[in-house]
Known about the structure:
By secondary structure, the chain is an alpha+beta fold. It has two domains: about 1-110, Class II aldolase/adducin N-terminal domain (L-fuculose-1-phosphate Aldolase), CATH 3.40.225; about 115-270, L-fuculose-1-phosphate Aldolase, CATH 3.40.225.10. About 40% of the residues lie in helices and about 20% in strands. It is built from eleven helices and nine strands. The protein has a nine-stranded mixed sheet, with helices on both faces. Helix 6 (about 145-150) packs across helix 10. About 45% of the residues are buried. The mean pLDDT is about 100. The structure holds 1,3-dihydroxyacetonephosphate (13P) and zinc ion. The site of 1,3-dihydroxyacetonephosphate has 12 residues, from loops. 1,3-dihydroxyacetonephosphate binds near residues 30, 32, 114, 139 and 186.
Amino acid sequence: MKPILEMKEMVELIRTITNMYNHGWDERNGGNVSVLLEEKTVKEYLDPAKVLREIPTGFEAPELEGKYFLVTGTGKYFKNVQYAPEENLGIVRLTDGGKTAELLWGYSDGGKFTSEFPAHMMSHVARLKVDPQNRVVMHCHPANLLAMTYVHDLDEKQFTRTLWQMCTECIVVFPDGVNVLPWMLCGTNEIGEATAEKMKTARLVVWSQHGIYGAGKDLDETFGLIETAEKGAEIYMKIAHLPRVNTITDEQMHLLEKRFGVKARAGYLN
Ligand code: 13P
Ligand code: ZN
């Protein structure tokens, strides 16, 4: 058995979480991340027959039966993860149609997975249907995206177009745009279902007055998605109160589509 802390996904998750904290996206216990692991990878580091505890999930997800996830713990501070990974992270396998999570490693102080587990698992189901390569779901509280939800129209097309106009790279990085949920009670199956529904058409879902969800094939891609959207929101919050003299036009965005081989969400450009 190889040492679990040397697993590539573990090393990358700890680095990414530390970086998220350093970006100011995850105050206190804010934010959560889940990574879908391959069974053959898990078996190199753990005996999958050794279940430490069974934890009820409170929802069903038959599509994820037998799947393994590396997930942040609820109430855990991202700033501490690098110093005590086994307390702050866990590896679970879903069974019983998704109703039970079998703990194989972690949550060593008796803790459990994030309170946003429903949103994570339901988003994995939704994204895997669109992109079988999807492995990561990430949630955090970046200040400018959050601020934007107080002052900008929450219409998804308008919200997306504004972000695309804020930096040239935005349309290239997230041509599928940003979907937006109104304020909803977090940590519930309802917000999980609503997030998953929005994940069918975009890899970024804003939770108004709360934060953002991103999904992608690996941690770098997912982090980069949120980082780019947050940069767009930062520019917006710097200029929203000033007269707009220049912008990136739709014509220029069509040039970007051609140059980078991306296709903007249908109907979002004139
Ligand atoms: P957890 O500590 O349960 O992951 O919750 C943090 C959070 O951001 C809730 O939305
Ligand atoms: Zn949150």
